[in-house]
TrEMBL record:
Stretches of the chain forming a coiled coil according to its record: none
Protein name as it appears in the record: AP endonuclease
Keyword presence, Nuclease: yes
Residues in Xylose isomerase-like TIM barrel domain copies: 56-274
SUPFAM superfamilies reported for this sequence: Xylose isomerase-like
InterPro entries: IolE/XylAMocC-like (IPR050312), Xyl_isomerase-like_sf (IPR036237), Xyl_isomerase-like_TIM-brl (IPR013022)
Amino acid sequence: MLQFAIRGHDITNVKNVEDLALKTQLAGIQNVQLALGISFPNMPTETANINPGMGNYFRTKLAERDVNIAILSCYINMIHPDLDVREQLLQKFEAYVKHAKYFGASMVATETGCVFPEIAYTTENFTEEAFQETVDVIKRLVEVGEKHGMLIGIEPGLNHPIHSLQKTERLIELVDSDFLGIILDPTNLITAETYPNQVDIVKHAFRLFGESICAVHMKDFVVENDRVKPTYLFQGEMQVKEIISVIAQQKPNSFVVLEETKDEWIGKAKDELNHM
């Protein structure tokens, strides 16, 4: 058994939390990964805005439709080159960690950013300097997680300083905290050359740092012009059945987020998963 989830912003044209709760329930899903600023762009969700009442309101309204906030997202560029901007972003993430319990979330999630102001692919992310800078920032965030009893979910990816299984393993060794969790997104770690080995990559991730994996993203993909591009689940090259089998064996009842599967495709994907 696994607990399937969706990103709240993969349901489009959502007017408010009640609307999100209803549409999630109708899709047959009971868990969401909630990125407040993306799902509700007109609502103030910065450092000074997030508060216990907001968390309680979202948690209560979603619970009325039997929907749970599995993961609270706060995606930031944690190594922004402008140190003043970086500090503002880190303080925002820390505010989310402080208040996540009021939302009923089990973790606060982010990727690991970019050496440039705008997150983009660059080999400069792969230097030892960028890696060490990222480790230092994650240590700070994990200390806040320890203080508030909240897991910090870090998502590795090819466009970021934590861009491989080996770098992820080193991160875990250097941070050395039970409050650091890894959100494994297999599609973020494969290329046009390595995608045929996707199942082996997932198995290897569990061998290297399975104890630290706290959730998995399932994002299907197609390979076009030597690039891996996301698509709806069961519409691409992902070996869904095999990967789901590995996750279920290694992490029973874990959260599996159907990333990039949107609107009416969510229910279709859930039906496929239920019949596997």
